[in-house]
Design goal:
The complex is a heterodimer of chains A (320) and B (378).
Chain A lengths: L1 H21 L7 H38 L13 H7 L2 H32 L5 H9 L6 H11 L12 H8 L13 H27 L3 H9 L4 H12 L1 H17 L2 H6 L9 H10 L4 H30 L1
Helix pairs in contact in A: 1-2, 2-14, 4-5, 4-8, 4-11, 5-8, 6-8, 8-11, 9-10, 11-14, 13-14
Chain B lengths: L8 H29 L3 H4 L11 E8 L7 E3 L2 E7 L7 E6 L13 E3 L5 E4 L4 E6 L10 E8 L6 H8 L3 H32 L5 H11 L4 H15 L5 H25 L3 H9 L4 H12 L1 H17 L2 H6 L9 H11 L4 H21 L1 H12 L4
Antiparallel strand pairs in B: 1-8, 2-3, 3-7, 4-8, 5-6, 6-7
The chains are: A mainly alpha (320), B alpha+beta (378).
Chain lengths: 320, 378
C-alpha cells in the first residue's frame, strides 16, 4: 500500500529532478536549456495521466469495437453475428425495455424530489439538518442500499408476522402481503426506488445552490405583482435554474445506464428485471462470451454518446 | 426569503410537515438496518424492527417431562414442570396442536387429543394430567406463545466481524481504497496544473478528450482490461485495481481540478515565476496548498466511490479471503444467507459506517466539490 503511493510520488519528484539535471537552469546556455525544459515539462506532468487514460479508457473503447466482431474468446472473426444475435435475443429486448424505464423514471423522480426537497428545506430553520439526512444515502454503496431495501421488501406468508416494513404497512391496512421483488414489471419500480433514494440528495444539493443563486430582485418583483408562492416557484424559479436541472438530469442518466449493483444484489435479473449493464456482466462471467458481452457494452456506449458530445460542447463554452 | 412575503402560518406548517415526511422516508430505511443489527436473532425473525422496544411474541415448541415421571394424584397421573427449562418469560397463549398455538389463554384447561388435560400458567408452569398412567418414552409437546422482553446484543457484530469474514473484508477494502484515492489525485493534480498554466500544443484537444472520457461507461473497459491484465501477468492483484480506479476516476478529477486551478489568481503564479521558481516548485509550494479545498472534495468523492464500488472489485479482484472487499462480501451474503437478517443487517452496517462517518465529517467539502463540478453558470 505504502509502496504504491510512494512510487507515484517518486515518479514526479525524480522525473523533474532528472529534467533539471539534463537542462540545468544555470550555466552557459541558460536560455536554450530553459526553453527545452519548458517544452518537455508539460509532458512529464501530463504523462502518467495520458498513459493511464489511454490504457483504461481509450484503448478499451477501440478494443471493444474490435471484440464485438469476434467469437467468445475474441479469436474468430464472426462479422455481424453478435449484432444479429442481439437483435433477436429476448433477454436483450427485456433489458432495453427495462433500461428505458429506468432512464425515464429515475432521473425524473430524483430531480423532482430533489427540487422539492431543495425548495422546502431552504425555507425552514432546521433545513440544513434535513438536507444532511436526505443527502446521507449518497454515502451508502449500492449494495448496502440493496440490503437496506431488500429488508424493507421482505416477504412472509400471510398470517405470520411481517418483518419487512412495506408488507407490515400493507397488512396493517388489511392487505395481502406481497413478494414485491417477484411481481413482473412492478418489481422494476421497486428496484428503481433504491436508486432514487440514493440520488435525490445529489439533485437536492445542486438545485438548492442554483435556487440560492437566483437574484432576489426577480422574486421580489414577482411578489409585488402578487404572485402566489406556487406561481413564483413554477414561473420564476424553475425557468431560471433550467440549465442546472439539465445538468443534474444528465448526470443521473449516465449513472442509470451504468448501474448494475442494485439489480445484481436484489434480483440478479430474475423475474424480468434484467438491465443492460447486468446482462453484459452475465455474458462476461456466466456466459464467458467476450464477444457478445462487448457488443452489449457497445450498446451502452452508444446510448452515452449524445451526452458525451453535449458535455464536451458545454465544457468548451465554459473555457472560452 | 420567507420574510419578504407575509407568509401564511398554514403554509409554513405544511412546509415543516412535508420536510419532516421527506426526512422520515429518507432515514427510516437506514435506521431500520441499524436497529435490526443489534437485535437478538430469534426476535428479529418474528417481529419487525419497529417493535424492537416492545416485548416480542414468539412461538415455542416445548416438550414436557417424559411420561414415566408422572405421579399419581387423586386418581390422575400428573406431570408438572416449566416450559422455560432454562431462562424465563411470560406465556400469552398456548395450544395443543401446532396449527393452533394460540388456542387457549394462560391458566385455561385444555383437552388433549389423546385424552387428559393440560394447563399452562403465565409464568410457564404446566400441569398435564392423564386419566391413566401414560406410556411412551417422550414427553408431550407443548405449543406456547411467549412474550419476551426486548433483547439487544452486540453478538451479531461479533459474529460477522470474526467468523463471517467481514473483518478481513474491511481490511481488504481499506487496502484498495487508500491508494486508489491518493494516486489519482496526485496524477490528476499535476495534469490539471499543466493544462491550466503551461503552454504546449494540443492543450485544447486534450482537455476536450478528457471531458468526453468522463462519461465513458465502465462496462466498456472491463473485457479489454481483463484480457490485457492476463496478458501482462498483473492478473487479479491490488496494483491492478488501484490503477483501474485511478483510470476511471481520472477524467473527472482532472476536469474538476483544472477548473479550480485555472481559477487561481494569475499574479501569484506569474510573480513566483519571475522570482525564478520552476514549475515543479510553483506546483508544490503554491498551487497544491491553494487548491486544498478542491483536492479534499475530490478525495472524498473518490474515497466514497472506491469504497462503495462493486463492479471493478468483482472483475479485477479475486473471490478469495485475502481479496474480497466489503461490497463483494455483502453481495455474497445476500446470495447465500438471504434470510439471515441478523448477519445481513450487521454486515451492511459495518460496510456503510465508514463512508457515512467520512460523509458527515467532511460534508462541507463534498458539497463544495459537487457544486464546482456540476453547476456551470447555473
Amino acid at each position: 500500500m505504502v509502496l504504491g503511493v510512494a512510487a507515484c510520488f517518486g515518479y514526479f519528484w525524480s522525473s523533474n529532478r532528472l529534467l533539471d539535471t539534463i537542462y540545468p537552469g544555470t550555466g552557459a546556455n541558460v536560455a536554450a536549456n530553459l526553453t527545452k525544459a519548458n517544452a518537455i515539462r508539460p509532458w512529464l506532468f501530463l504523462g502518467p495521466a495520458i498513459i493511464i487514460l489511454g490504457i483504461y479508457l481509450v484503448y478499451p473503447v477501440v478494443n471493444s469495437i474490435v471484440l464485438s466482431f469476434h467469437g467468445p474468446n475474441g479469436e474468430h472473426w464472426v462479422g455481424g453475428y453478435n449484432y444479429n444475435w442481439l437483435i433477436h435475443d429476448a433477454a436483450f429486448r427485456e433489458s432495453v425495455r427495462n433500461n428505458i424505464l429506468w432512464l425515464i423514471v429515475v432521473p425524473t423522480a430524483a430531480t423532482f424530489f430533489g427540487l422539492i426537497a431543495a425548495t422546502l428545506t431552504d425555507r425552514i430553520g432546521w433545513g440544513n439538518i434535513a438536507k444532511s439526512l436526505i443527502f446521507m444515502p449518497m454515502a451508502i454503496s449500492f449494495v448496502g442500499a440493496s440490503v437496506i431495501w431488500k429488508f424493507i421488501y421482505d416477504y412472509r406468508p400471510a398470517g405470520s408476522g411481517q418483518i419487512g416494513l412495506l408488507n407490515a404497512i400493507v397488512t396493517s391496512f388489511g392487505g395481502e402481503p406481497q413478494a414485491w421483488l417477484t411481481i413482473p414489471l412492478w418489481n422494476n419500480f421497486f428496484l428503481m426506488v433504491v436508486l432514487i433514494w440514493i440520488q435525490t440528495g445529489f439533485a437536492m444539493v445542486i438545485l438548492s445552490a442554483a435556487l440560492r443563486g437566483i437574484p432576489e430582485e426577480t422574486i421580489e418583483a414577482a411578489i409585488i405583482d402578487g404572485a402566489s408562492p406556487f406561481q413564483i416557484f413554477y414561473k420564476i424559479k424553475v425557468p431560471q435554474i433550467w440549465s442546472t436541472i439539465a445538468v443534474v438530469w444528465t448526470t443521473i442518466t449516465i449513472l442509470v445506464l451504468k448501474v448494475f449493483d442494485i439489480v445484481i444484489a436484489m434480483t440478479n435479473g430474475q423475474w424480468g428485471t434484467q438491465v443492460l449493464a447486468n446482462y453484459m456482466f452475465d455474458w462476461m462471467f456466466r456466459g464467458l462470451d467476450f464477444g457478445r458481452a462487448s457488443t452489449i457494452a457497445l450498446v451502452i456506449m452508444i446510448m452515452v454518446v449524445p451526452i458525451m458530445i453535449w458535455n464536451v460542447r458545454e465544457a468548451r463554452k465554459g473555457t472560452r | 426569503m420567507s420574510t419578504a412575503v407575509g407568509t401564511r402560518p398554514a403554509l409554513t406548517w405544511a412546509v415543516h410537515l412535508a420536510v419532516l415526511l421527506l426526512v422520515a422516508v429518507w432515514t427510516i430505511p437506514t435506521f431500520g438496518i441499524l436497529v435490526s443489527s443489534f437485535r437478538d436473532r430469534d426476535q428479529l425473525v418474528v417481529s419487525g424492527w419497529w417493535t424492537a422496544l416492545t416485548s416480542a411474541e414468539r412461538n415455542i415448541v416445548a416438550r414436557s417431562a417424559p411420561p414415566e415421571e408422572a405421579v399419581e394424584e387423586n386418581g390422575q397421573w400428573v406431570l408438572r414442570g416449566n416450559v422455560f427449562a432454562e431462562g424465563s418469560g411470560s406465556i400469552s397463549a398456548f395450544g395443543t396442536s401446532i396449527q393452533r398455538p394460540r388456542e387457549f389463554e394462560p391458566g385455561a384447561t385444555a383437552e388433549m387429543r389423546g385424552g387428559g388435560t393440560m394447563t399452562v400458567e403465565e409464568n410457564g408452569d404446566y400441569v398435564i394430567s392423564y386419566p391413566e398412567q401414560p406410556e411412551g418414552g417422550r414427553g408431550q409437546r407443548l405449543f406456547v406463545t411467549s412474550l419476551e422482553a426486548p433483547k439487544f446484543t452486540a453478538e451479531n457484530y461479533e459474529r460477522v466481524l470474526f467468523s463471517e469474514g467481514i473483518g478481513q473484508s474491511f481490511i481488504n477494502t481499506l487496502t484498495v481504497t487508500i491508494p486508489a484515492t491518493v494516486i489519482p489525485i496526485l496524477i490528476a493534480a499535476y495534469a490539471a496544473y499543466a493544462l491550466s498554466w503551461m503552454q504546449f500544443p494540443g492543450r485544447a484537444l486534450l482537455l476536450a478528450t478528457i471531458v468526453g472520457l468522463i462519461v465513458v461507461p465502465l462496462q466498456m473497459a472491463l473485457i479489454p482490461l481483463l484480457r490485457l491484465y492476463n496478458d501482462i501477468g498483473v492478473g487479479k492483484s491490488f496494483i491492478g485495481i488501484w490503477l483501474a480506479h485511478t483510470g476511471f476516476g481520472l477524467p473527472l478529477a482532472v476536469y474538476l481540478l483544472r477548473n479550480y486551478i485555472a481559477g487561481l489568481p494569475r499574479e501569484i503564479i506569474e510573480s513566483a515565476r519571475v522570482d525564478g521558481a520552476s514549475d515543479f516548485e510553483i506546483f508544490r509550494k503554491i498551487v497544491l496548498p491553494l487548491s486544498f479545498p478542491a483536492l479534499a472534495s475530490f478525495a472524498i468523492f473518490q474515497f466514497l466511490w472506491v469504497w462503495n464500488d462493486l463492479l471493478i472489485a468483482t472483475v479485477f479482484l479475486g473471490n478469495n479471503e485475502e481479496q474480497l472487499v466489503l461490497t463483494g462480501r455483502l453481495r455474497e451474503l445476500l446470495g447465500s444467507r438471504g434470510g439471515d437478517w441478523e448477519i445481513l443487517t450487521a454486515s451492511a452496517f459495518v460496510a456503510i459506517v465508514v463512508p457515512i462517518v467520512v460523509f458527515f465529517a467532511l460534508q462541507r467539502y463534498l458539497v463544495r466539490g459537487l457544486l464546482s463540478g456540476s453547476v456551470k453558470g447555473g
